[in-house]
Design brief:
alpha+beta, PH-domain like, 5-stranded antiparallel sheet, about 20% helix, globular
């Protein structure tokens, strides 16, 4: 699974961004990008401060992307390439679901007054409680430490699925 990444410090952002092709994997508490032709960049997921959707307007046509903000002023932008034979927007969705599977799976949260365990299922988020699996949508009230992460996940999935034909 290939994505394009750009890593930079917010103190010194690039004037002309140069994305690198990479595959990714989550190893323990680290997000590792294997950059082509050789190299590896890894980030501690405990230092992840936020994730937000982003539209890269300097590409024609514009590309959807995701910005990961880490403590220490470091950011990573993840997108997919423009070649439909080598890249697929589904790779970006797979990246988000892999990331949030690590961040949310097994977390305990209060959803609509009841306590349950969160689980990423496909590209959706569910809560398991009393032996039932319920899909989490915007109309569900989520409370607990993972409230912001749940909101980020739902926002990213809406952004990535926007305009997708079934």
């Amino acid at each position: 699974m290939w994505v394009d990444i750009l890593t930079y410090s917010i103190l010194n952002p690039p004037k002309f961004p140069r994305f690198r092709r990479a595959s990714f994997r989550i190893e323990g508490k680290r997000l590792v990008f294997y950059v082509r032709p050789k190299g590896e960049v890894s980030f501690n997921l405990e230092a992840l401060e936020g994730v937000e959707p982003l539209e890269l307007q300097f590409f024609k046509p514009p590309r959807k992307a995701i910005r990961l903000r880490f403590s220490g002023g470091f950011e990573v932008i993840v997108t997919v390439g423009r070649n439909p034979l080598a890249y697929d927007r589904r790779n970006l969705i797979n990246f988000v679901t892999s990331l949030y599977s690590f961040l949310l799976n097994g977390a305990i949260a209060r959803v609509d007054g009841g306590v349950g365990v969160l689980k990423v299922v496909g590209d959706e988020l569910a809560v398991i409680r009393d032996g039932r699996v319920e899909k989490i949508t915007r109309d569900k009230k989520v409370e607990g430490e993972v409230k912001d992460r749940v909101e980020e996940f739902l926002t990213l999935m809406e952004f990535l699925n926007e305009g997708e034909e079934s």
